[in-house]
Design goal:
This protein is mainly α. The protein is built from 14 helices and no strands. It folds into two domains: 161 residues, no CATH class; 172 residues, no CATH class.
Length: 343
């Protein structure tokens, strides 16, 4: 399988997973907002109901990821073995990484089973019985007996390492995550960082995802600020795009930076990566924590040390705006007049 195809399969799984994460994450955040971090333990409370619904949606993250990776590789027959592999990964404790590997394994095995020649009389049973049964048996057996435990051990080692990060080491992780979040603004590299943060939430490590959200909000917010600080460098259309970017930025939608990056990638992409690295590093240094998988500015009150978190976010935003404006030349006078900007 070519690397490009493998990446497409992984991104298919991630794209189907994101709506479950978003819905579940916002409901979990609402549960915390209503009842605090312990309110959901009160049976029958609003926080309890919100946590049940949100937790169920969030709990489907790994099975959906694995199921639709397998679907991308083997079409509909891959969904059942893929989702079962994802459920087993969750049950074993192999988490996101286990689900990812389980989905790929399910896709390969399902394609292998589909290629088996059977008598004409059994051909009708292949898609509804033989393929899902054999694929699930093989994939499930491998997940339980061979693959699951080594991946769990790897996840446990990663969890222990992350828990021990302090000072410069924590800041370095924040820089790496920040660079990844800004590099392709919602693309594959961004999604790898984001799903890593989700995996850490599942492991009860809440600092990395706080850094990831700050780094993901910074690019559109920084570009929106840039259009305000240096109006004469931007056309009227770009300034309108800046307003839209601001809304997307506070909502943790990094894709709001894409119009600017597409128009001027050599100046914009290094600028937003620098700002996001600053935001991610400061968030990790401050020890900010985030239990909700999504939510943007609306869940900042629920973040550990929220005022310091806003400092990290503001610092990254300002660095992005200043750097992109330093690199960007002024518009020609005729362009300024046509865009409605005073000269």
């Amino acid at each position: 399988m070519q690397g490009r195809s493998l990446r497409n399969h992984l991104m298919t799984g991630v794209s189907y997973m994101i709506p479950f994460v978003t819905a579940g994450g916002i409901l979990i955040a609402l549960s915390f907002a209503v009842g605090g971090y312990e309110g959901f333990k009160i049976e029958g409370s609003i926080a309890d109901y919100l946590m049940q619904i949100g937790g169920t949606a969030f709990g489907l993250m790994v099975p959906i990821l694995a199921g639709f990776i397998a679907y991308s590789m083997a079409d509909r027959p891959g969904i059942a073995p893929g989702m079962i592999a994802g459920m087993l990964a969750t049950k074993i404790g192999a988490g996101f990484l286990g689900g990812l590997i389980g989905g790929l394994l399910a896709g390969y095995v399902t394609n292998w089973v589909k290629a088996i020649k059977v008598p004409r009389g059994l051909a009708g049973l292949m898609p509804v019985l033989i393929i899902p049964l054999l694929s699930t048996l093989v994939v499930g057996g491998l997940m339980v007996v061979v693959i699951g435990q080594p991946i769990k051990a790897l996840m446990d080692a990663l969890t222990g390492w992350l828990k021990g990060l302090t000072g410069i080491n924590a800041a370095l992780l924040g820089i790496i995550l920040g660079l990844m979040m800004a590099f392709d603004m919602g693309g594959p590299v961004n999604k790898v960082a984001y799903t890593f943060g989700l995996a850490m939430i599942s492991a009860n490590i809440f600092e990395p995802h706080a850094a990831i959200m700050a780094a993901g909000m910074t690019p559109p917010l920084g570009l929106a600020l840039a259009t305000v600080l240096a109006r004469k460098k931007y056309t009227e259309r770009e300034r309108e795009a800046g307003k839209a970017a601001a809304v997307m930025g506070i909502s943790f939608i990094t894709e709001g930076a894409i119009p600017f990056a597409a128009a001027d990638p050599l100046r914009v992409i290094p600028s937003i990566m620098t700002g996001s690295a600053v935001a991610g590093a400061l968030s990790m240094l401050f020890g900010n924590t985030l239990r909700a998988p999504h939510g943007g500015i609306f869940v900042v009150p629920l973040i550990g040390k929220p005022w310091l978190y806003l400092v990290a976010l503001a610092a990254g935003t300002v660095v992005t705006a200043v750097m992109v404006n330093l690199l960007k030349p002024d518009l020609p006078e005729d362009a300024l007049r046509s865009s409605g900007t005073e000269v």
